[in-house]
């Protein structure tokens, strides 16, 4: 085990630039799932727990609609949170619809794969 850890550290030490570049490219290609929320929001906490197994498939961006610079979102979603957008487009509200999320993530993956 120690040998493997040592070897991994050496590999990371000497190849950090290419690895860092690969990680940045991977993150750049991940879709952004935006969660419109406010505090407290038990449904938002529940939704994040449901999303936990899928967190490697997207970047989760939380927007607190009660902040002064988010008033437009507050007016729009104050009675509907949690609300989710995927890559800037409305996806779902109130509860996580896993089937819908998986379908949209697959569509995005196929679109990105087709552009390579």
Low-confidence stretches: 1-12
Share of residues in strands: 15-25%
Number of helices: 5
Head-to-tail CA distance between termini: 38 Å
Structural class, by secondary structure, is: alpha+beta
> Topology as H/E string?
HHEHEHEEH
Largest sheet: 4 strands, mixed
Radius of gyration: 18 Å
Quick one: how many beta strands?
A: 4
Widest sheet: strand ordering: 2-1-3-4
Shape: globular
Q: Round the mean pLDDT to the nearest integer and report it.
A: 83
Helix content: 40-55%
What does this structure look like?
Belongs to the glutaredoxin family. This is Glutaredoxin-like protein. Keywords: Electron transport, Transport. With 116 residues, the protein is α+β, with helices and mostly antiparallel strands. The protein contains 5 helices and 4 strands. Strands 2-1-3-4 form a 4-stranded mixed beta sheet, with helices on one face. Strand 3 and strand 4 form a beta hairpin. The radius of gyration is 18 Å and the shape is globular.
Concise overview:
By secondary structure, this protein is α+β, with helices and mostly antiparallel strands.
Keywords summarizing the entry:
single chain, 116 residues, alpha+beta, 4-stranded mixed β-sheet, 18% strand, globular, disordered N terminus
SSE diagram, text form:
Layout: H1 2-14, H2 16-29, E1 32-37, H3 42-51, E2 59-64, H4 71-77, E3 83-86, E4 89-93, H5 98-115
Parallel strand pairs: 1-2
Antiparallel strand pairs: 1-3, 3-4
């Amino acid at each position: 085990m120690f040998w493997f850890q040592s070897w991994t550290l050496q590999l990371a030490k000497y190849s950090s630039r290419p690895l860092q570049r690969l990680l940045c490219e991977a993150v750049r290609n991940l879709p952004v799932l935006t969660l419109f929320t406010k505090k407290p929001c038990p449904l938002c906490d529940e939704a994040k727990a449901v999303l936990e197994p899928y967190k490697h498939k997207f970047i989760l961006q939380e927007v607190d609609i009660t902040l002064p610079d988010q008033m437009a979102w507050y007016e729009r979603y104050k009675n509907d949170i949690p609300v989710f957008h995927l890559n800037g487009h409305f996806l779902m509200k109130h509860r996580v619809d896993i089937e819908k999320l998986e379908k949209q993530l697959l569509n995005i993956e196929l679109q990105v794969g087709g552009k390579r």
